Each structure stands twice: as structure tokens, then as C-alpha cells.
Amino acid sequence: MSIAIYPGSFDPVTLGHFDIIKRSADIFDHVIIGVLNNTSKTPLFSLEERVKMLQDTVSGIDNVSVESFDGLLVDFVKQKNTNVIIRGLRALTDFDLEMQMAQSNRVVAPDVDTVFLSTSVKYSYLSSSVVKEYARYDVDVSDFVPECVISKLIDKMKGL
Ligand code: ADP
């Protein structure tokens, strides 16, 4: 059975992420979304909120599950008995960092490979940061995030 890990912050999940998730689920038998509990970044949404929004987003896809992880990505990948990481690429600006991460992961875990999926053109501009910026200024975000995220984003901005 081919298993792949799609890691990220997902703060919050966007339709760009969801597009990569759906396409990955068509390629691999099982996709585990790994939500990073990143202590060096202060996310807008808590780890539990990010996991819940992803679970709601992927609830209709049988071969996708959501988990959180701490620490090194390659350790999480091995724990899940796989050696495939999925990452999305939007533009050249993503490339440097993604290449560096993929290569450094291979230094510490030579059997782990990163598979890159290129963004669908309609989501090429989309990031969690852009979505948060729009929401902060009351721009309608329904074209950018899954339905279940919209009200959570609005509530979060009201509480800030
Ligand atoms: P990270 O903090 O690990 O970069 P993100 O949640 O920002 O986490 O992104 C997770 C992955 O999804 C990354 O590989 C990123 O390049 C990819 N991604 C983000 N937005 C898009 C998009 N609009 N289209 C395709 N891939 C995307």
C-alpha cells in the first residue's frame, strides 16, 4: 500500500491545499496530512483548530486522514511506515526553500523522497497568509477556503 505524508502548517487550510490533497489522494493509496505543531511560529489557529478544519474539509475522501506531529518531519514519516513526502509548488519563490528542505531531509533520511505537485493555476497566488490578510479587512474569502473554514476565520478575526 502506498502511503504519502502531506505536511504543513495549514493555518488555515485553503482551497490550494485542498486541491493538492485531492490530487495526492488520486495518486497514493493513503494520504496522511501532517499538521505541524511548530513552536517557532505563532499560528492564528491552535493545533486542534487546524486539525479539526482539515478533518471537516477531507471528510468525504476515504483515503485521507489527518494527524498532528511535533519535531522532525522525517521521524514522523518513518513512524508512519512510509518514505514519501508531498509538497505543493506555487512559484519560483517556493522552489529554493522546498528544494533545500527536500535535500536536507534526504541527508538525514536518504530513503525519504519528496514528491512535488505543481499548483493548479487558479490557486497559484493563494496562501494561508493572503487569506488571513483578506479576512482581517473583511474581504469575502469564500473563493479561497473550504466552506467549513469561512465562519471560523470570521469569528477568529472578530476575537482579535
Ligand atoms: P508550510 O508552513 O509547511 O509551508 P503551508 O500550510 O503554508 O505550510 O503549506 C503546506 C504545503 O502546501 C507547502 O508545500 C506549500 O507549498 C503548499 N501550498 C500552499 N498553498 C498552495 C497552493 N495555493 N497551491 C499549491 N500548493 C500550496
Key attributes of the depicted protein:
alpha/beta, 160 residues, Rossmann fold, single chain, three-stranded parallel β-sheet, binds adenosine-5'-diphosphate
How would you explain this protein's 3D organization?
The structure is a single chain. Helix content is 44%, strand content 19%. The protein is α/β, with parallel strands linked by helices and 160 residues long. The chain has a single domain (3-158), classed as HUPs (Rossmann fold, 3-Layer(aba) Sandwich), CATH 3.40.50. The strands form two sheets. A three-stranded parallel sheet has the order 1-2-3. Residues 8-10, 14, 16-17, 20, 87-88, 90, 94, 119, 123, 126-128 line the site of adenosine-5'-diphosphate. Adenosine-5'-diphosphate binds next to helix 1 and strand 4.
- What share of the residues does DSSP label as strand, in percent? 15-25%
CATH topology: Rossmann fold
Distance between the termini: 44 Å
**Count of domains:** 1
CATH superfamily: HUPs
Give a short synopsis of this structure.
The protein is an alpha/beta fold. It contains 6 helices and 5 strands; from the N terminus they run E-H-E-H-E-H-E-H-E-H-H.
Task: Describe the secondary structure blueprint for this structure.
Blueprint: E1 3-8, H1 15-27, E2 30-36, H2 47-57, E3 64-69, H3 73-79, E4 84-89, H4 92-108, E5 113-118, H5 128-136, H6 147-159
Parallel strand pairs: 1-2, 2-3, 4-5
Bound molecules: adenosine-5'-diphosphate (ADP).
Adenosine-5'-diphosphate binds next to α1 and β4.
